[in-house]
TrEMBL record:
Pfam families: Peripla_BP_4
Classification of source organism: Bacteria, Pseudomonadati, Pseudomonadota, Gammaproteobacteria, Enterobacterales
Main location: other
InterPro entries for this protein: Peripla_BP_I, SBP_2_dom
Signal as UniProt keyword: yes
Record protein name field: LacI family transcriptional regulator
Family indicated by similarity: Belongs to the bacterial solute-binding protein 2 family.
Subcellular location: Cell envelope
Alphabetically ordered keywords of this record: Signal
Gene Ontology cellular-component terms listed: cell envelope
Keyword Transcription: no
Superkingdom of the source species: Bacteria
A GO MF label: carbohydrate binding
Amino acid sequence: MPLRTTLTAGAVVVALSLTLAGCNRDAPEGTVGAAKKTLGVTLPNLTNPYYVAMKKSFEDNAAAQGMNVKISIADNDDAKQLSQVQNFIEQKVDAVAVNCVSSGPCVSIISQLNQAKIPAFAINILPDTDGMKQQNVTLVQGVQTDQREGGKLIGQQLLKDIGENGSATVGIVGEPTSIAANARDDGFKEAVASNKNIKFVALVNGKVEETTSLKVTTEMLQGRPEINVVYSDTEPAALGSLAAIQQLGVSDKVKLYAFVDKEGVKAVQDNSVMKAGAIQEPVKLAQLLVENAKKSLNGEQVPAMINNPPLLVTKENAASVIGSAY
């Protein structure tokens, strides 16, 4: 009987070991036998499809990497975002990723994470660089879209569309107070600088609002009828500019190039007015951050900054691009 008891216990141990091995067979590398790390994430809102896609990507990629993720939505409120990060600190999460509501106030948020010795990551909208230097605040990593490169991609497509010796008279519908929008504009201008037949004659502020952009584009085209290319550096500006061009009845003369999201991609696909655009990749940005957060928490070195280029959108690839970006 003692022998039978010993064999039975041994069989149980073997069976249990096999069962546990089977349970861990599909676990991501580095998670077997270790407690899951938790990543806290705070996003500005869920009214923008961009952040809806980013939220889902954080959830999907955290699961794929064997991490827990806690996501809070700040409702475009700097104070609320600060409170959310303070909650993450109290919960003793392993790392925090912040998509800043505003770059300036975000410096204090990152500072609190530094003081709590919790690794701080930033995504998409990063804390103000000068403010971080002044307060001696640091990030493990920032992940953002290369805005300037996006402008260059659009400018290069314009050059391709008009031909080597083509000409264009350009009006910009932008947001002069936005660092990201200005970087996009600079990239666009840089890309077309080699063609001396391209002239910039107007810059109006669409304030990243569709109705405002409709108004200022209409006024710009009426005041400068020689404009035959409008460049808009945000999707709301692009949609407002598109409406202005159509309502003025100049679709045959004036073409539009722009940064776009989902609705803008549809206009590029139609291609009657909007000829090309650039789209950011919220899904990929979140994926990159989760992957690098895991590496960092496992003791690996990660780059201090990742600048992910947006995707060029043309009539030919519009249908496939939206699926990969969002």
